[in-house]
């Protein structure tokens, strides 16, 4: 859904609320505090009074729109803009597009990304795995940089079903972040190890994987007759992610990095969805994990 369609389908605050109520409750409102379905509607305020726990609530309680002072239409437009921005969208640009200031746009973007965090099934089939390093701004409290070591970078591990879904893990900077033990644990957590076949490069961290699943690594010394062993899917994803992070989000701190990466994974994983906007609204009010 593009922004013209958002304007057309959700011209007023009321139309947005009615739609969110349908997505969240399917016609049966329930109290977000006590789950009771015994309520009295307060239609003029778009709220409900819970007759069990005596609180009042609206459809936005506990969602990414909770306590917002902005029109829901702006939120819907912002969601659409984020979903359509293949390389990401900066807070400055988002702010200009929906006429809010940059800080508000940044905050909205972070909330929208929370609705884009996936907890999908284990990856199957041919799964490529690769690691990359993403530069992050040092945070207050980070140890001072050693001379000559450049910007501290954060290792990120990604796994991609060939022709399918992608999952990523921000490995963190602690010692052993990319050790055999750690990478094996990441594989077990995200890949169906009894069924899938793993393709990696020759990095020694993947050395433990063949003990519990079929594993092939790219041998750069050989010229390949069989072109199946590669990690091109994962490498294309890193390229897109880095263009986005360098171009739009050049000051991503490590704390927020998982959310930015989740945004790119989400667009990639739902690229064939017929209604990614609807899916995201549904995550925003229901699948939202309440942080
Ligand atoms: Zn209640």
Topology of this protein?
Blueprint (H helix, E strand, L loop, with lengths): L2 H7 L3 H13 L13 E4 L4 E4 L5 E2 L14 H13 L6 H8 L3 H13 L11 E10 L17 E9 L4 E5 L9 H11 L6 E4 L13 E4 L14 H16 L9 H13 L6 H12 L4
Parallel strand pairs: 4-7, 7-8
Antiparallel strand pairs: 1-2, 2-3, 4-5, 5-6
Helix pairs in contact: 3-5, 3-9, 4-5
Zinc ion (ZN) binds next to loops.
Quick one: CATH class of the largest domain?
Answer: Alpha Beta
- State Rg: 22 Å
User: Helical percent range?
Assistant: 25-40%
Q: N-to-C terminal Cα separation, in Å?
A: 27 Å
The biggest beta sheet is recorded as: 5 strands, mixed
Q: What name does CATH use for the topology of the largest domain?
A: Nucleotidyltransferase, domain 5
CATH architecture of the largest domain: 2-Layer Sandwich
State mean pLDDT (0 to 100 scale).
89
Number of extended strands = 8
How many H/I helical runs? 9
> Strand order, biggest sheet?
6-5-4-7-8
Order of secondary-structure elements? HHEEEHHHEEEHEEHHH
Bound molecules: zinc ion
Please state the oligomeric state of the protein chains shown: single chain
Low-confidence parts, pLDDT < 50 over ≥5 residues? Answer: none
Q: Give the domain tally.
A: 2
What fraction strand?
Answer: 5-15%
Shape call: elongated
Q: Which structural class matches the secondary elements? A: alpha/beta
């Amino acid at each position: 859904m593009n922004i013209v369609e958002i304007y057309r389908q959700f011209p007023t605050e009321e139309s947005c609320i009615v739609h969110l109520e349908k997505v969240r409750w399917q016609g049966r409102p329930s109290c977000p505090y006590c789950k009771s379905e015994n309520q009295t509607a307060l239609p003029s305020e778009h709220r409900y009074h819970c007759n069990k726990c005596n609180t009042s609530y609206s459809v936005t309680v506990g969602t990414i729109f909770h306590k917002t002072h902005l029109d829901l239409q702006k939120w819907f437009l912002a969601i659409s803009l984020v979903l359509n921005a293949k390389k990401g969208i900066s807070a400055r640009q988002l702010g200009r597009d929906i006429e809010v200031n940059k800080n508000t746009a940044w905050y909205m973007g972070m909330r929208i990304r929370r609705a884009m965090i996936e907890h999908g099934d284990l990856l199957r089939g041919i799964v490529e795995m690769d690691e990359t390093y993403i530069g992050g701004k040092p945070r207050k409290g980070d140890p001072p940089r050693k001379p000559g070591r450049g910007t501290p970078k954060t290792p990120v591990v990604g796994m991609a079903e060939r022709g399918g879904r992608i999952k990523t893990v921000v490995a963190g900077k602690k010692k052993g972040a990319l050790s055999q033990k750690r990478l094996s644990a990441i594989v077990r957590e995200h890949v169906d190890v009894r069924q899938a076949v793993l393709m990696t490069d020759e990095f020694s961290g993947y050395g433990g994987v063949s003990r519990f699943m079929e594993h092939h690594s790219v041998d750069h010394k050989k010229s390949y007759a069989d072109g199946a062993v590669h990690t091109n899917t994962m490498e294309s994803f890193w390229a897109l992610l880095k263009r986005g992070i360098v171009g739009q989000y050049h000051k991503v701190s490590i704390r927020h990095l998982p959310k930015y990466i989740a945004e790119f994974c989400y667009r990639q994983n739902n690229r064939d969805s017929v209604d990614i906007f609807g899916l995201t609204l549904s995550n925003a009010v229901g699948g939202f994990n309440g942080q």
